[in-house]
Amino acid sequence: MVTPFVRLSRVHALMVAGETAMAVALADSLFLSISPDAARTKVILFLAVSMAPFAVVAPFVGPVVDRMRGGHRMVVLLVGLLRAAVLIGMAFSLDSLTLFPLAFAALILSKTYAIAKSSLVPGTISGTEGLVDANSKLGQVAGITGFVVAVPSAILQLISTQATLGLGVLVFLAAALNAYRLPKVVTAAAAATSAEVEELHSSSVLSAALAMRVLRGVVGFMFFHLAFWLRREIAGTAWFGLAIALSGLATLAANFAGPHVRHRMRVEMMLLAALIAVSIAGIGAAWYDRVVGGILLAALVNAAAALGRLAFEATVQSGAPDANRGRAFARFETQNQMAWVIGGIIPVIFSPAGWLGFAIVGFVGIAGTITFVRMGGITFRSRAVRARDRERRSHSE
Fold first, then answer.
1. Which of 194, 201, 211, 196 is nearest to 325 (CA)?
2. Which of 28, 141, 309, 349 is most buried per CB count within 10 Å?
3. How crowded is the C-beta side of 22, counted as CA atoms within 13 Å?
4. Domain ranges of the chain
5. Residue 15, pLDDT above cutoff 70
6. Can you give the pLDDT at residue 395?
7. Any stretches that span the bilayer, and where are they (predicted)?
């Protein structure tokens, strides 16, 4: 028997495959060809463009995702069909300015799917204890699919860009067909109730969101810091390519390790561990002050962010079970993207020395750790003690 989560995993793999095919097809286009050697104004423009879809997703798409008849399943189905249509339009617009609004539409649809997918996860498993495992498996599916599909996409790209886009069209259509068998759930009513608003403002959710913003911010900072700093080093482009490759592998490894880590600690401890790891690694890389140290720091930062994301999503999915999940994830994803943009724009404008950039990462990690603890993101009571407290409260009521 095929479980709802297996069906969601299949849809996710197909969506990632289509995304990979599109990225490979447009790798040579102006829209996605921002290189480390590009002018600073172009990189800043790229950062601004990366924020633009969230201006649509946060206020409009999130509520629509929650209220649409047929629930999140219908949203995923429509996204698959629309993404296939967008790629067909791109195939006929590669040398036209029409490519830009189509690429913008693809970004909006990508973020819409991400929101719907995160909202669907709790309904595909039983209980909340397996949320980290479920999110981890979806991360593993994404990482492996991206690596696997990149090869045939690159081969088709040698034939023509239209052939690569055609592959994307086929897999997006397959994703839409598979989405029809996902659970049919409508999460929210027309407006969030006061109880739902209170759930989304609990200390656990707010502190987890803060930790995730810190981690996303240092990921953006490290990416652009290395991109500009390594230009001044011998074989800078090769070093930067190695940094990207190791970061991708570190992210995949973190998704594999996530369930094992969750079995040994609570989600809030996972977030705390990720912040502490970034703090120590940043200070250590600044003291070492070598290219290798910077590359290893980038890989660790990406791994910490991946691990933190598993804990963050589980916190929102379980900490606010009755809330409008589409709206919640739209809001949090907007905040995370803003943190990534702010983190990325700092090294673009100021170009700090290598060691100074690494030290900034370390000190931001330390500040994030202290703030996370002060916000109540971590409690040092045992699970048994918390269970007894809940039992006492229930008896007193």
1. 196
2. 309
3. 30
4. 4-179, 194-385
5. yes
6. 47
7. 12-31, 43-62, 162-180, 210-230, 236-257, 269-288, 356-380
List C-alpha distances in Å: 92 to 22, 161, 331. Answer: 14, 10, 34
Per DSSP, helices labelled H in the chain are: 4-25, 40-56, 62-67, 71-91, 99-120, 131-159, 161-179, 194-200, 203-229, 236-262, 267-288, 291-319, 325-350, 354-374, 383-396
What are the tokens at 158? 């040698």
Distance CA 342, CA 248 (A): 22
User: Which of 108, 97, 107, 94 shows the shortest CA–CA distance to 25?
Assistant: 94
pTM of the shown model: 0.81
In this structure, are residues 128 and 30 in contact, taking their beta carbons and an 8 Å threshold?
no
Q: Mind listing the pLDDT tens digit for each residue in 294-321? A: 999 999 999 999 999 999 988 887 765 5
| Structure token pair of residue 168 | 């994307």
Confidence of residue 350 (pLDDT cuts 50, 70, 90): confident
Residue 1: the pLDDT is 64
CATH number among 1.20.1250, 2.60.40, 3.30.310, 1.10.150, domain 4-179: 1.20.1250
Shared fold status for 4-179 and 194-385: yes
Residue 301 to residue 254: CA distance in whole angstroms? 11
* Pairwise CA distance, residues 380 & 386, whole Å: 10
Name the residue among 87, 375, 37 with its Cα closest to residue 236: 37
- The closest alpha carbon to 205, from 369, 367, 323, 65, belongs to 323
**Architecture in CATH of 194-385:** Up-down Bundle (1.20)
pLDDT, tens digit, for every residue of 88-111?
Answer: 999 998 878 788 788 888 888 888
